[in-house]
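Re: weekly structure request thread

Next one in the queue (205 aa):
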Amino acid sequence: MQRIKVIVLFIVLMLTGSNMSYAQEDTALNSALEKMTQAVVTNNPQEYLQHTSPRLIKAMGGEENSLKLVKESLSTLKDVHHITIDTVINYNKLDVMKLENISFKFIPQIMLTSVADTEESILIITNLLAIKENDSAEWKFIDTNFVGDEEIDIMIPEFKDRVKIPRLAEEPLILPKKEVQKVLQNMLNFLDESLKQKPAAIDYP
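Done, posted below.
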């Protein structure tokens, strides 16, 4: 239940941004998100990086080093921790926002994983930032859970003191496989309910 409350808080923060204009839903974003999600599920680091923001790739030391790091991360997940990513659910219901020449959107993401030779599943909650540099650019993504506030300020100086990145600091949720669907549905129900709320505006620092 605590994990669900954290996700709800995340959504509430996303809904209360001030001084930003909202754009229409972008079908190109949905297409890019689907391709990136498929790259994660199929363990395809090359495809994953094609949809990663160039700003993040630069911060990781360039394309060659980024590819190495992503490969190592996926390999560690599978070969060391014996975790397989079964399904990725993108809660892609929030508005696209615009700040100067940057369109962006936060996308809570739930990864359903299984642990080899056990009856356990792990629900990993991540926070994707979809970003498009200008009207003609493609949508790219940054998983902000793995990037600190100082790094975000360097990568996206336009956001500094204007956009607050929510943090999901809790550990992944470990569950018996038989309980996964019930807990997942509760999460999604809470998210849907949070969208119906109209919280007071929060002024970002």
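The helical segments are 2-14, 27-41, 45-50, 54-59, 63-80, 149-155, 180-196. Strands lie at 21-23, 83-90, 96-99, 102-115, 120-132, 140-143, 173-176.
Next request, please.
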